[in-house]
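Query structure, 405 tokens:
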């Protein structure tokens, strides 16, 4: 039977190939150290869980909730932006609660995209940034992911050679998967460009609180005038170790927020009210939980960089996010990130995410998630060291491996 139109527009899900191999290895008894999916292993802070339990005992909270988010939650998110970024938001018109930032991006794409609209998107990037618009009938024009001096010239070329002119530009800093961090000066240049060219800015700031080096990552909304063209998406998944709770936000331009809210009103009734109340308490907290999570990821990052380096795999230290963007070791570069990721499972019992899953320009990299404790990270490094020591390049494009241990 022929596939449906929107399904045909989606390529095979690269990560599913790795997931199947991982599941098969575990079924066979292998102890797979999973550094692939960015699924936080840390427990949600007790105070947040306690608030959920308290509120869920009230049967009145079991009814339908608010698609936009309950008023207290939207006020708490506005207060967070005021404290953290010095950005003033109207919780009634400039804040919407979403079922995680991923859902927010997908529904924003539905809200603003007409068939054939061009959206400029970094490559590599988190898949929903591109495929949310592809599923909505849009067309993606790729651009470099690095927020450096080449970004604005690349934007100018993208606009010059796009017909019709681009509707929107996706930003994602700290980046998933590359961990690039943008500066406020970078955002000033991008906002000025967007205003000149009537382009919407959609910023994914899910990793705003997971940073290790330098100043805290800024928000694009800190730039004067950004509110005229920009919406920013944040998530509580990583910041508060709440991935399964599905709680995020979209904030910014009133017209865009209204469009998103209208689409959401047809699709969902919002998160379970006790979750929204617990999220409100988390946002109104003193920040100690955020600092603790950040420090745990910092220690894991440092252990990984050191241990993997000793194993013969030099991994650049990410300045932010919960991911390292690691070059595929030279002997394996020619086989690509997917085949290398499969080899790591088969020969080292370690799972990573192949870079090709984030775009064709990611195929010389893999993404390593800091979602195992320090002991397991060192264990992974020992297995990788054994694996790399057995790899013997036979020619430019072939790698020979001895039998599995």
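Result returned for the query:
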């Amino acid at each position: 039977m022929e596939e449906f139109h929107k399904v045909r527009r989606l390529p095979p899900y690269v990560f599913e190939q790795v997931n199947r191999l991982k599941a098969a290895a575990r079924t066979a008894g292998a102890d797979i150290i999973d550094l692939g999916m960015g699924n936080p292993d840390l427990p949600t802070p007790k105070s947040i869980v306690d608030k959920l339990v308290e509120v869920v005992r009230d049967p009145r909270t079991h009814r339908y909730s608010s698609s936009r988010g309950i008023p207290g939650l939207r006020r708490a998110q506005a207060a967070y932006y005021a404290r953290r970024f010095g950005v003033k938001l109207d919780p009634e018109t400039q804040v919407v609660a979403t079922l995680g930032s991923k859902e927010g991006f997908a529904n924003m794409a539905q809200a603003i995209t007409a068939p054939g609209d061009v959206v400029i998107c970094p490559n590599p990037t988190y898949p929903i940034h591109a495929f949310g618009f592809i599923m909505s009938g849009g067309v993606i024009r790729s651009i470099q992911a690095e927020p450096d001096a080449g970004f604005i010239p690349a934007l100018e070329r993208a606009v010059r050679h796009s017909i019709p002119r681009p509707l929107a530009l996706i930003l994602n800093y700290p980046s998933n998967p590359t961990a690039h961090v943008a500066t406020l000066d970078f955002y000033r240049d991008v906002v000025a460009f967007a205003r000149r060219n009537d382009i919407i800015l959609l910023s994914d700031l899910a990793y705003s609180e997971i940073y290790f080096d330098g100043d805290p990552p800024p928000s694009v909304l800190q730039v004067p005038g950004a509110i005229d063209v920009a919406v920013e998406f944040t998530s509580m998944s990583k910041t508060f170790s709440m991935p399964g709770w599905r709680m995020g936000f979209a904030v910014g331009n009133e017209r865009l927020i209204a469009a998103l809210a209208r689409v959401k009103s047809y699709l969902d009734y919002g998160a379970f009210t006790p979750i929204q109340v617990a999220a409100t308490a988390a946002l109104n907290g003193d920040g100690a939980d955020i600092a603790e999570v950040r420090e745990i990821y910092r220690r894991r990052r440092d252990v990984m960089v050191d241990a993997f380096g000793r194993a013969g795999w030099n991994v650049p230290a990410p300045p932010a996010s919960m991911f390292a963007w690691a070059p595929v070791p030279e002997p394996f570069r020619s086989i690509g990130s997917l085949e290398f990721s499969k080899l790591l499972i088969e020969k080292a019992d370690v799972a990573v995410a192949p870079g090709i899953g984030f775009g064709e320009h990611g195929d010389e990299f893999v993404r390593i998630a800091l979602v195992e404790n320090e002991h397991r990270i060192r264990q992974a490094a020992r297995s990788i060291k054994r694996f790399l020591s057995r790899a013997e390049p036979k020619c430019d494009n072939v790698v020979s491996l001895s039998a599995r241990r």
